[in-house]
Amino acid sequence: MARAHALDVCAPRARIRLVVDLNRCQAYAQCCFLAPGVFELHGEEALWYDPEPDPAQREHVLRAVASCPVQAIAVEWPERTDDDGVEAPPRRSP
């Protein structure tokens, strides 16, 4: 599977999907500071997040993903549709 860096550009206004490995997350909260509307800490260690953030938050989200010290946040990028209009599976980046 091809990996793309979190800051790659793919359809600037297309939705992206976030996947957080909650077993890997250590609650450093860097994501919460950089994208507070998307990531939120509850208590000392419980991370809540929006898996499909608004495209308007894209830049903040990508900075938050890149800032994670344990790389617990992955981005699934939408693929372009083929000639039949069928959407290909998303690419995933750590």
Structure description:
- The chain is α+β, with helices and mostly antiparallel strands.
- The protein has one domain: Alpha-Beta Plaits.
- It is built from two helices and five strands.
- Strands 1-4-5 form a three-stranded antiparallel β-sheet, covered by helices on one side. Strands 2-3 form a two-stranded antiparallel sheet.
- A hairpin with a 3-residue loop joins strand 2 (39-42) and strand 3.
- It is globular.
User: Could you say which structural class the secondary elements and strand pairing correspond to?
Assistant: alpha+beta
Largest sheet data: 3 strands, antiparallel
Mean pLDDT rating: 81
Distance between the termini: 12 Å
Q: Note poorly predicted spans.
A: 1-10
What is the succession of H and E elements?
EHEEHEE
Helicity range of the residues?
Answer: 10-25%
Shape: globular
Indicate the CATH architecture.
2-Layer Sandwich
